[in-house]
Amino acid sequence: DDTSMEEPADGRPAESSIVEMSIELLPADAEDAPSDVYQAAATLGLSPDIEWRGYMTRELGFGVRAAVATVRSWTGEVGAEELEDACAALTCVQSARVVSWTQCNDVCPFDLAWLHAPLRLDAQALAPSAPLARLPRLGLVSTFRAAPNLRSWIVFHLHVGVRAFYLYADSEADAAEARALAASLGAAGALIRVVDVDAALRREWEGLVGWRRYGPRLAEAGSSVMARQCLNAEHAMVHAGALLQRQADRRAAAIGTCDAQSDGLDAGRTGARSESAVCDWLCHCDVDELVCVRPHRPPLGIAGRTDADTLSALLAAAQAAGACAIQLANHEAALEATAHNAPGGASGEPLCALRAVADPFAELNLFKLNARVRAAGGLLARAHCAPSDRVGALGAPEAAEPSDACAFVQYDNGKAMARVGFGARPHGVHKWLLPRAAGCGVVLAAPDDLCVLHFCECSYPAFVQKYEALGDFPDTWFGQGVLPFRLRARDAARAGAAAMEALFRAEVVLADPECVIALLASGRCARVTKVCEVLAAAERKGASAPMREEFSF
Questions:
Q1: CA 244, CA 250: separation in Å to the nearest integer?
Q2: Which domain CATH number covers 55?
Q3: Of 466, 442, 445, 444, which Cα lies nearest the Cα of 455?
Q4: Is 301 exposed, middle or buried (0-12, 13-18, 19+ CB in 10 A)?
Q5: Taking phi first (over 0 means left), then psi (-120 to 50 degrees means alpha), and beta for anything else, what does residue 391 get?
Q6: pLDDT for 45-54, tens place per residue?
Q7: What is this structure's pTM?
Q8: CA angle 25, 27, 30 (to 5 degrees)
């Protein structure tokens, strides 16, 4: 597990003392949205012992909705009465009442999701005639610096149906480049929002619920990158929630005046501005990761449905199953020392192991499958053995499979997406804090339906540059151990070029083609050619200008 990505439990009390409360916050005015009421309460700074974990809404009639928030007290130090009094003192709160109180264990629902059967789409859900009144949409949030393949990243995600991109640029040059890209690339109905990580944004961070957790980490070497990522992800979630609420308010107003179609809010219409700019789910996705729909299927989809249709059906199925978060398995791209349908060489042609890979998304198609879901991944692997691999797979090659050939060099605990509008906020870069209530479960997506493809350490020059930039970071981030490979790479960077090359050859590159054949045959690796195919088709077709919409909150 990439445990360095999560907030440490150091110093927390024994689980038996954890108290979880649900508190109903009645707004002082019908104009006070539940999200605003929750935000005001959650940023009170009542006690370091208190953790706000999101909210549900309860309809009270006459357009008034209460926020029912989940609050955890790690020691039980803050009681129900003190919490009620503090919240009731807010000008936007008419009354505050704790409606449930229980002792609980600190069990992560995302960890539990791996232990249950994954959510799978059946044939009926994928049928073109399946009734879906309003298709849920996915948005992505990413913090980046020097992302040479951002264009391919956006193009692929547009193909699979992502309709909102929240891009947080770590430098002015990155922001300018991303805005230029957004002006020239995209598809009608997609929101591409580029945000400068500057002093103005930092002031907005201070108003976020997660500021108390991640703000102090901004000054720490190593931890600062993840702290910015978490704050940016929460910032994007708040913005997406504001857009979603604005759409709901406009829809309600339009229905009240019998003018829904004239306002462009008819769910049956395509390309409606106010409809398409909204995302119902948000995933934190780095620019070396791709959210892939049905990786073993052709890009044009099946049964008359595109990948975008399938993604919406998956999100709708999760909502129908009572989930507000989806756990995705990740698979890790592998760098081969022989070409396989790669630009510049026929299958089997030797390649330089230390080569620069200009665009890993377009050039690499071999993936190490996540051991947590490898049983399901075996089907994916057999479906994507290329002819040259299939001979070896069927012929049971004699080459021994090294025990560590398929070890991930980076994380293996997946990524997660959360529903917008529930006050979810990042718990590290892999998970979210969620309210505990009916309809707020976590489901594991079937890896053959939805997964994350992680293109890490795919180019030797980029590998060297990355660890030069990271510098001499400590052994712990966020109070927990750093991934072992990162520590070895840090130490190799200290030792010099020869050590870096030796580490890269030994732990990153799959140099033996017979070993690759054995890994494919055993189901530990898979060929996924969909990304290359989608990008090649997009290059042939070209792209139209994206829709850009700004909204301040």
A1: 10
A2: 3.30.70.60
A3: 466
A4: middle
A5: alpha
A6: 888 889 999 9
A7: 0.86
A8: 150
- Answer whether residue 86 is part of any domain: yes
Whether 34 is in a domain gets the answer yes
Number of structural domains found in the chain: 1
23 in helix, strand or coil? strand
Give CA angle at 400 (396, 402), nearest 5°.
Answer: 130
Pull the structure tokens for residue 469.
Answer: 């930039």
Can you tell me the distance from the alpha carbon of 304 to that of 346, in angstroms, rounded to the nearest whole number? 34
Both tokens of 350, joined, read 């030797």
Nearest-angstrom CA–CA distance, 87 and 42: 9
What length is written for the chain? 553
Bridge-based pairing of strands 431-433 and 323-328 is unpaired
CA 109 to chain centre: 16
| 509 in any annotated domain | no
Question: Where in the sequence is the domain holding 98, given as residue range(s)?
Answer: 19-104
316-372 pLDDT per residue, tens: 999 999 999 999 999 999 999 887 654 444 456 778 889 999 999 999 999 999 999
- Name residues whose C-beta falls within 8 Å of residue 178's C-beta, 6 or more positions apart in sequence: 144, 150, 167, 169, 194
**Within-domain flag for 552:** no
Fill in the amino acid letter for 328. L
